[in-house]
From TrEMBL:
GO terms for molecular function: ATP binding. This is Amino acid ABC transporter ATP-binding protein. Residues 2-246 form the ABC transporter domain. It is a peripheral membrane protein. Pfam families: ABC_tran. Keywords: ATP-binding, Cell membrane, Membrane, Nucleotide-binding, Transport. Gene3D superfamilies: P-loop containing nucleotide triphosphate hydrolases. The keyword Cell membrane applies. It comes from Polymorphospora lycopeni.
Amino acid sequence: MVELRGIHKSFGPLEVLRGIDLRVRAGEVVVVLGPSGSGKSTLLRCVNHLEKVNRGSVRIDGELIGYRRTGNRLRELKEREILRQRTHIGFVFQNFNLFPHLTALENVAEAPVAAQGRPRREVRELAAELLDRVGLADRADAYPRRLSGGQQQRVAIARALALRPKVLLFDEPTSALDPELVGEVLEVMKDLARAGTTMVVVTHEIGFAREVADTVVFMDGGVIVEQGPPDEVLDRPKHERTRSFLAKVL
Ligand code: ADP
Ligand code: MG
């Protein structure tokens, strides 16, 4: 479902991603671990072309993201085309990024109507179902400022699902939450994983990785240091850098 090949990304002289190869199968949950500054957010942003790669390719369900190949040449797609591709890639941010002037239901219903042109009535019904799925049926008419951080993040997850994405990307979805609100968001993410959602999750929640991940990826310095099933990477890491990172977060 997701195929990253040879991704390189620099900001000026700073080389942030130095050759990333990663495949995520349909229904697979990949958890990405790594120290601050190792390039995790940049990698997620490259997947949906919020950042342009310097080298390498991103494919979602076989479709090249951001570019069209004609013969040997790559040409960047038009903005409208990129926005269409992005609707297949759900993104959940650390800071929720809800629209403050829209209710929970309107936040969920906005993009399918605006970006995909789906009928408003049908989308509102779907939005109500999705809010129910994340345990917020009774908060549909609340504005974000009236919701806790955990509730806001669950609305953000429902909003991402409303676009019927092929893959959901999470960038430290619980890092901005008070500790007592982390569990409710992780529970929703576990439900999604059990339902077969394809997910790439950047998080420091090792318990979540252990319980839910099919594959754990450890990144450091812009490369994947190691990857494998959680029991291998978390309990029997092969690399010293992985061991010292885990010693700090566990
Ligand atoms: P992580 O998410 O693993 O903490 P990031 O991908 O956010 O790492 O950042 C990796 C490195 O790239 C950091 O040194 C960061 O300062 C740098 N970086 C990220 N985005 C930009 C940007 N837009 N311009 C310049 N440097 C950036
Ligand atoms: Mg980050």
